[in-house]
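Shift notes (night). Ran Cytochrome bc1 complex cytochrome b subunit while the centrifuge was going.
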Amino acid sequence: MTTTYKSPVAEDSAIAKASVWIDERTSISGAVKEFGRKIFPDHWSFMLGEVALYSFIAILLSGTFLTFFFDPTMTHTTYNGQYVPLKGIGMSGAMASTLDISFDIRGGLLMRQVHHWAALLFVASIMLHMARVFFTGAFRKPRELNWIIGLVLWIIAMLEGFSGYSLPDDLLSGNGLRIVDGMILAIPLVGTWISFLMFGGEFPGTDIVGRLYSLHIMILPALLIVFLAMHLLLMVVHKHTQWPGPGKTENNVVGNPVLPVFAGKAVGFMFIIMGLIFTIASFFQINPVWNYGPFDPSPVSAGTQPDWYIGFGDGALRLIPPGWEVPLGNFTLSLAILVPFALMGVFVIGLFVYPFLESWITGDKREHHLLDRPRNAPFRTALGAAWISFYATMWAAASSDLIATHFQLAMEHVIHFLQFWLIPGTFIVFFVVHRACIALQKQDRAVALHGHESGRVIRLPHGEFQEIHVPLTETEQFELSNYDTFAPVKPYIDPETGKTKGKLRSRLSRWFFADRVEGATPAEVEAAKHHGHGELH
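Came back to this:
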């Protein structure tokens, strides 16, 4: 028996004819059909990447509006706009046009604030998305390349944010550029030449705003779009990761198809994010350049910090002890700047190489499409927490002056504490988080064997008191009892030389798997059910 399906669109309608015309010339129906059948799982943590995508769309829309009115020139002019306190003050054309956008262009201030808040949310969601990928092991084979692309997106996003933050040529952004100029000048031999090339002469020069503008509206957005497209393409090729659960395996994806379910939800979520950004931009002021005034190299005020995501560079400079300079003839080697450079380099390079390092240490070359619960990979989770602590300490140091004034502390005490926490504190965080993961694993094993504590205590006929436990659901039992139990790498004997090889790798592997608690096996769970220690079954 054949059932005829009546299309909701009439075959002779304008929509149908247009669809046929396009398909005959592009064959797009095959791609739409294939992509529309892709399955995406539902979990709140997967929405972090979507937040980044929708924030980027808000950045593009608001940025397009601003480009029509911004004048990226450092030519000196006199401001005669509507903001009375700065009327008649000399400033660059970039600063004057920023004030015009804020006070003279209808909707200009709203678009400026939408652009800035969306940029902050964009970088924040990228970093949270990266943290989710790291802690759940979603960077493992076959997604190492996508992890690298994501890191490149993060770096480009920070450069994009910093270049846009520097465009108004106000006192705050000018101080930030001055810090960057000082870091460039500290580079041995070529630093001075790079600085003159960037700024068009001695700082502040005459060209930096125009060059940053070209980067900000053309080169960096193009790179973001290219790498974002590659990131999404690889996600489709590899299929989406998913959390373990009944019916979920390494060979399937449980969720909803792109069309129409996931696409409908995604569009709705996009409008929610857009609405949130516009609401924040409407009620919360950000980057009021009129309060800072035009850039002047002479005044530098306390309490000026860069946007939070780039503050770790400024904080690293503040944490270096004074006097770290080595005179070399006519040159001075400024370790006070080069060492923070090295710290930030190690921090970023470590993120790039970690997937390959973990794969080599564990010997795990398998494909992974199921995610790890962070507690079930204690070494990785502790290392990630230590990484975040290291970054956050440098970030907090960028506001050391505000911390001192708000909490009435001595600046030296704040700096000394943060200096201590940068290195020893990182190891403390690693140890505490590692032990916490082990404790949570032990708790999971006990719950998997005996069930949830009910709080009800009964007295047995022979006088013994025992608590009644509530059995787990099938899903809970699966999540607590089924996780990867990959074994450490062992040394091996080379058959040709007879020597033992792989000792270092074996030690690192044992360290990676140290103290990890194995999940309860089905046999142990079944035995616990029939043991009868007062559990409610």
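The chain has a mean pLDDT of 86. Residues 208-238 form the longest helix (31 residues).
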